[in-house]
Write a structure and sequence with these properties.
Layout: E1 16-22, H1 29-40, E2 47-53, H2 60-70, E3 74-78, H3 83-93, E4 98-102, E5 126-130, E6 137-139, H4 143-159, E7 171-175, H5 176-184, H6 193-203, E8 208-212, E9 214-216, H7 227-244
Parallel strand pairs: 1-2, 1-4, 2-3, 5-8, 6-9
Antiparallel strand pairs: 4-7, 5-7
Amino acid sequence: MSIDHTPSPTSQQPLLSIIIPAYNEEQRLPGSMEKILAWRQSVPYGVEIIIVENGSTDRTTEVAEGFARAHPAIRVIHSDKGKGAAVKAGVYEGAGAYLFICDSDLSMPIAEVEKFLPPQLQDYDVAIGSREAPGAHRFDEPGYRHLMGRVFNFIVRTLAVPGFHDTQAGFKMFKRETAREIFDYQTITGWTFDVEALYIALKRGKKVVEVPINWYFDEDSRVDPMKDTWRMFWDVITIRMNDRRGVYDVRPSAPNNHTEENHD
């Protein structure tokens, strides 16, 4: 399909950066990368792929670097451990006008990213993939996992980010300038980083929209239903405490790996 390149990136700037956090993903990464590369060949705009390895103990780095050697559009960077830390590192590396956070299991088919781009979607700062918004479809998800997700979403809506059906699907689009502004304030390095990012976005007056997606449950999910839900609950409490302490009011100094010209 044709894409309206508004705002139009320069000839050197890709329209889209796909940021993939990768921790111990030697098994899933090859299949996902092949699908992303095949899709990339079908679109008429520039796409770069940034794999962020964050403390893996398997062959993730070797696998990722093999793809990068074979495909100039792929870059591999490294971050501290934690999904939030990996995403933050990728945000500061991304050159695209739009930055798309993408789970390495590719439980949302990659072609669905087009739902997040002009002309299908415009006039937003952050767009979050939703498994619960009208028009979304879940496939093969066990009932206990769906219940766990709804309980956590209730906690998120009550304590931090009201009004959204689903904040935890691992597919989110940010306009580049917005992403860097938000992640300058980011403090959570684990799974709940995205709740904090949305909290900061809303606090700073950004327009956040939900995009219904098709989502396929992966049996190799890394989420521990009990331990991670409890940890994420305390992360939500931490977000509210951070706000009360003014953590999100005073902008930190820009990290060394991106320039001040991208900030207000």
